[in-house]
C-alpha cells in the first residue's frame, strides 16, 4: 500500500527519487520521505503530507547531495501518519535506512526483544525493527545482514535498504508485494511499479517472492532466498511515460474515463482474429473446459463488481454455474473447490493481497486459475495458469474506471469464447456476439458523448447526503460499481440495491430528501423498474434515471436522465457505467474532493 523507489548512479539521487515517488503517490499519500547516502552519512528528510510537500522541504531534492538513496510514500498501517512514522526509518546508530511496503506481522515480538536490548524506538511503525536488525547483523557483509534480517521477519514485505558504510550500494528484498528493478546505463533503480521507472528506463526485471537484489551504478545482481545468484529475464515496457501523465486533463480520473474507448479496443482487438476469439496461449483443452462443473470468480472492490457482471454473462451464454465471492471472504472459508472448478481471478493491479491469498487457497485445492489482470508481470499474472491481460495502460487515479471496463471486456471475451467451445452457440449468434464485442469501443465513446451534461446534473445533486442506486439483473451489478464510484471519490454515502429488494426493508430510508439513481438499461425489465421508481417517488424521492438512448418513457418517470447507447443487452454494463463514472467525477469535483487521491484509500491494497 506504500510506494518505494531506490536509485544508484551518477546523477543527484534525490530529484530522481522524488520524481519516481510522485508517480507512485497513488499507492499511498499520507506522508513521504527520502534518504541519500553522502560521504559516510545518511541524510534524511521526511514529513507527513504529500510528495509535493516533501519536494518543497528539499528544494525538489536539490538540497540533498548524494548519488544513491531511497524514497517512500506511505499509506499508514502501524502508527498515525506523522513525521516520525513516515519512512525511511533509521537504525539505532544511523548506519542503516529502510523503506518498507507491507506488514511485518511479528514486529511486536521483535520490538520487545530489541527494547530489552536497550534500543529506544523513535516511531510506532512495524518497520523500525528492520533497521535495528540490520545494524545488529551487519559485520561488514551487507548481503549477509540483509539475509539474516529477512530470515527473522514474518509477514508481507518489500524492503529497500541503504547503509552509510556501503557507498553506492542498495539492497531490496521481496516477500509479497510488487518490486521491479530498472536497468539503466551507469545507473540502476528499483520501485513498486514501472510507472516510477519508465521515464528513465524501459528495461525491467520483475522480482519474485523470496528474492533479493543488490544494486550498484554498474551492476544488478539478484539472489534467491538461499543467497545463490540467479539469472532473471529482462522485460521491455511497451508504453511511454505520457501514458502516466495527465495530458492536459484536470485529473487522472477524467483522463482515464476518456481513454476507455481505446483501452477497451486494445483489450478486445488483440483477442479477435479473422472474426474469431483467439486464446491460443491458454493451456485449457476443450476436454478440461467441459470437465468443469462450476466457475468461481473472486476479486475485491470494483474487480469484484466486474465479477458479478461476469456471472450474469457467463451463466447466460455458457449455462455453467458461476459463483462470485469477495476474496477477503473466500480466503477464510472452507470452500467447495476442487479440480473440477475453474477459478477466475480479476485484478487491475495483480497485487491485491486478499485476492492473491484466495487464489492460492483455491489453487491448492486443485482449481485451475484464469487471471484477468492489467499489470504485466504482477504476482497474480505470474501465479495463474492462464492470463487475459486487459491492456488498459497505467491507471493512476485511485478510483478505477478503465481498469473496470477492460475487465468487463475480458470477461465478455471469455464468456463468448467458452460458450462457443462448449457448443452453446450457433454460428450466427457467435458472429453476432463477436460483432457486438467489436462495437463496444464505439459504444463507450458514444456513452461519453451522450452524457457530457453529467456535469450539470452534478451541480444540481452534489449536495446529497445519501443516495441509492437501484437496478435489476446486469443493471444491479452495474449499480454496485456506480455506487462505489460515487462514494469513494465524493464521500457521499451511497448504497446499491436490487430494485426488487428495496421494499423488504430498505424502503424505510426513502424520503423526500433522497436521490435514487435508477438503472433501467435491461429493457425486458424496464416496466419492473418503472414500478420501483414509482414506489420511491411515492415516498418523495427524486430519481435520476439511466436508460437506453432513445427511450422516451424514462422522461415521464425520472427527474433527470442519463443515457447509455444501444447495443447487445448482455454487454450493457460496460457502456452504462460510463455516465455513472462521469456523474461521480463531477459530483466529487463540485464538492472540492481530492479526486485522484481520495482520503484513506490507496490504489493497490497489498495488505490484508
Ligand atoms: O487492483 P485490484 O483490481 O485487485 O483492486 C481491487 C480493489 O482494491 C479496487 O477495485 C478498488 O475497489 C478501487 N478503489 C475501486 O475504484
From TrEMBL:
Alphabetized GO MF terms: carbohydrate derivative binding; glutamine-fructose-6-phosphate transaminase (isomerizing) activity
Q: Which residues form the active site?
A: 2, 603
Listed InterPro entries = GATase_2_dom, GFAT, GFAT_N, GlmS/AgaS_SIS, GlmS/FrlB_SIS, Ntn_hydrolases_N, SIS_dom, SIS_dom_sf
Provide the reaction this enzyme catalyses.
Answer: D-fructose 6-phosphate + L-glutamine = D-glucosamine 6-phosphate + L-glutamate
Q: Name one Pfam family in it.
A: SIS
GO BP annotations, alphabetical order? amino sugar biosynthetic process; carbohydrate metabolic process; fructose 6-phosphate metabolic process; protein N-linked glycosylation; UDP-N-acetylglucosamine metabolic process
One GO location term (cellular component):
cytosol
Q: Where in the cell is it found?
A: Cytoplasm
Subcellular location, principal: cytoplasm
SIS domain residues are 285-424, 457-598
Cited Gene3D superfamilies = Glucose-6-phosphate isomerase like protein, domain 1 (3.40.50.10490), Glutamine Phosphoribosylpyrophosphate, subunit 1, domain 1 (3.60.20.10)
User: Which key words tag this protein in UniProt?
Assistant: Aminotransferase, Cytoplasm, Glutamine amidotransferase, Repeat, Transferase
Q: Which residues form a coiled coil?
A: none
Cross-referenced NCBIfam families, in alphabetical order? glmS (TIGR01135), PRK00331.1 (NF001484)
General function of this protein = Catalyzes the first step in hexosamine metabolism, converting fructose-6P into glucosamine-6P using glutamine as a nitrogen source.
State the protein's name.
Answer: Glutamine--fructose-6-phosphate aminotransferase [isomerizing]
Amino acid at each position: 500500500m506504500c510506494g518505494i523507489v531506490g536509485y544508484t548512479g551518477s546523477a543527484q539521487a534525490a530529484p530522481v527519487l522524488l520524481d519516481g515517488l510522485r508517480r507512485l503517490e497513488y499507492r499511498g499519500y499520507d506522508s513521504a520521505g527520502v534518504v541519500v547516502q553522502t560521504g559516510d552519512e545518511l541524510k534524511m528528510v521526511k514529513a507527513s503530507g504529500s510528495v509535493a510537500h516533501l519536494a518543497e522541504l528539499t528544494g525538489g531534492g536539490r538540497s540533498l547531495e548524494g548519488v544513491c538513496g531511497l524514497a517512500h510514500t506511505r499509506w499508514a498501517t502501524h502508527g498515525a501518519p506523522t513525521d516520525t512514522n513516515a519512512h525511511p526509518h533509521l537504525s539505532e546508530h544511523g548506519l542503516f535506512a529502510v523503506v518498507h511496503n507491507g506488514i511485518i506481522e511479528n514486529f511486536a515480538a521483535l520490538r520487545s526483544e530489541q527494547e530489552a536490548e536497550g534500543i529506544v524506538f523513535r516511531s510506532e511503525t512495524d518497520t523500525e525493527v528492520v533497521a535495528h536488525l540490520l545494524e545488529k547483523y551487519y559485520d561488514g557483509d551487507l548481503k549477509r545482514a540483509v539475509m539474516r534480517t529477512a530470515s527473522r521477519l514474518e509477514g508481507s514485505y518489500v524492503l529497500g535498504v541503504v547503509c552509510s558504510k556501503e557507498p553506492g550500494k542498495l539492497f531490496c528484498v521481496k516477500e509479497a508485494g510488487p518490486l521491479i528493478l530498472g536497468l539503466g546505463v551507469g545507473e540502476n533503480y528499483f520501485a513498486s511499479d514501472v510507472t516510477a521507472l519508465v521515464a528513465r528506463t524501459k528495461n525491467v526485471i520483475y522480482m519474485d517472492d523470496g528474492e533479493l537484489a543488490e544494486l550498484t551504478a554498474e551492476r544488478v545482481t539478484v539472489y534467491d532466498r538461499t543467497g545463490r545468484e540467479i539469472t532473471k529475464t529482462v522485460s521491455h515496457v511497451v508504453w511511454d511515460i505520457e501514458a502516466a501523465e495527465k495530458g492536459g486533463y484536470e485529473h487522472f480520473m477524467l483522463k482515464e474515463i476518456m481513454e476507455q474507448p481505446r483501452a477497451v479496443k486494445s483489450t478486445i482487438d488483440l483477442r479477435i482474429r479473422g472474426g474469431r476469439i483467439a486464446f491460443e496461449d491458454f493451456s485449457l483443452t476443450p476436454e478440461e473446459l467441459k470437465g468443469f462443473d462450476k466457475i468461481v470468480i473472486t476479486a475485491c472492490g470494483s474487480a469484484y463488481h466486474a465479477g458479478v457482471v461476469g456471472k450474469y454473462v457467463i451463466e447466460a451464454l455458457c449455462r455453467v454455474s458461476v459463483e462470485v465471492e469477495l476474496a477477503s471472504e473466500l480466503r477464510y472459508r472452507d470452500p467447495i473447490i476442487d479440480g473440477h472448478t475453474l477459478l477466475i481471478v480479476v485484478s487491475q493491479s495483480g497485487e491485491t493481497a486478499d485476492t492473491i491469498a484466495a487464489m492460492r487457497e483455491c489453487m491448492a485445492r486443485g482449481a485451475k486459475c484464469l487471471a484477468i489482470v492489467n499489470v504485466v508481470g504482477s504476482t497474480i499474472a505470474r501465479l495463474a495458469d492462464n492470463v487475459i491481460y486487459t491492456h488498459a495502460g497505467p491507471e493512476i487515479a485511485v478510483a478505477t474506471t478503465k481498469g473496470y471496463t477492460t475487465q468487463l471486456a475480458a470477461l465478455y471475451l471469455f464468456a463468448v469464447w467458452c460458450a462457443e467451445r462448449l457448443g452453446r452457440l450457433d454460428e450466427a449468434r457467435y458472429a453476432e456476439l463477436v460483432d457486438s464485442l467489436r462495437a463496444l469501443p464505439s459504444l463507450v465513446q458514444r456513452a461519453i458523448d451522450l452524457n457530457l451534461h453529467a456535469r450539470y446534473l452534478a451541480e444540481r445533486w452534489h449536495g446529497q447526503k445519501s443516495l441509492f442506486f437501484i437496478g435489476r439483473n446486469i443493471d444491479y451489478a452495474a449499480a454496485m460499481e456506480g455506487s462505489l464510484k460515487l462514494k469513494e471519490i465524493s464521500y457521499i454515502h451511497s448504497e446499491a440495491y436490487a430494485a426488487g429488494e428495496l421494499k423488504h426493508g430498505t424502503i424505510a430510508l426513502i424520503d423526500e430528501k433522497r436521490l435514487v439513481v435508477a438503472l433501467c438499461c435491461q429493457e425486458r425489465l424496464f416496466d419492473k423498474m418503472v414500478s420501483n421508481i414509482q414506489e420511491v417517488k411515492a415516498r418523495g424521492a427524486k430519481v435520476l434515471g439511466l436508460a437506453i438512448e432513445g427511450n422516451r418513457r424514462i422522461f415521464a418517470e425520472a427527474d433527470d436522465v442519463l443515457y447509455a447507447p444501444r447495443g447487445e443487452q448482455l454487454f450493457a454494463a460496460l457502456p452504462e457505467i460510463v455516465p455513472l463514472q462521469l456523474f461521480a467525477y463531477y459530483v466529487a469535483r463540485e464538492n472540492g474532493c481530492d479526486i485522484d487521491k481520495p482520503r484513506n484509500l490507496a490504489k493497490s491494497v497489498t495488505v490484508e
